[in-house]
Amino acid sequence: MNVFIAGGTSGIGYSLAKHYLSKGYCVGICGRNLAKIEENNFKNLQAFQADVSDMNSISSVLESFLLDKQGLDIFINCAGSYAEDVAGNISYEEAEEMLQTNISGTVNCFEASRKAMKNQKNGSITVVASVSGILEYENSSLYTKTKRSVIQIAEAYRRALKPFGISVTTIAPGYVDTEKLRQLNQNNLGKKPFLTNLETATHIISEAIENKEKLIIFPTKMKWMMRSLSLLPSSLLNMIMFRKAKWMKND
């Protein structure tokens, strides 16, 4: 089996890479900074430098990975960008990076993997979004809106690719205990409800891919909390989510 993971140099992506390597699969990973890779002593691992917001970049490294291989079985897009903008305090550069990585990057990964799989009549494409994208309300953060867009883009590709034997799985996780999350929160995760450890998240995601699930939201408590919130009037949901975001940032 051949697996390629965009955003696979750290966090969930790298954990999934190690999972598939343990099964004896050939795995390719890419990211903007290869120095993030903890270790690279795996025989079947190939690492590439690439930026998903650049179509030529992601297409080129995927072609390089597949050069001596018979097809692409699994493509996973774990690439993402986050910047806090609860009170509208966000720079143009931060906003641009989120839009380019989370939206343009998602489309680019779908296009690159779709083209690699189109003559196979099979294959699996997965994108990691966020549970925050499940909710729709006016004053949600830019990050939340981009992740909602990711979910909707995946739905469109799922419908388009189904006749060609290519499955699409969307992953909408809650808080996962990664090094990045700890860095963003000064190593204090006390205000992150229903925190999932990386090993559990990897198991849930890999199982969803194997079963060709359409949409997986985890952990279960977070899923039901978000679905309950989605039933509230928009004005009330706006107020609750804004206060929650301010509370989480208030040390």
Radius of gyration: 18 Å
Give the strand line-up of the largest sheet: 3-2-1-4-5-6-7
Largest sheet: 7 strands, parallel
In what range is the share of β-strand residues?
15-25%
Which CATH first-tier class would you pick? Alpha Beta
Number of domains: 1
- CATH architecture grouping: 3-Layer(aba) Sandwich
Shape: globular
SSE layout and pairings?
Layout: E1 2-6, H1 11-22, E2 26-31, E3 45-49, H2 55-66, E4 74-77, H3 92-117, E5 123-128, H4 142-161, E6 166-173, H5 179-184, H6 198-210, E7 215-218, H7 220-229, H8 234-249
Could you explain the architecture of this structure?
The protein is of the alpha/beta class and 251 residues long. It has one domain (2-249): Rossmann fold (3-Layer(aba) Sandwich), CATH 3.40.50. 46% of the residues lie in helices and 15% in strands. The chain has a seven-stranded parallel sheet with strand order 3-2-1-4-5-6-7, sandwiched between helices. It is globular. The mean pLDDT is 91.
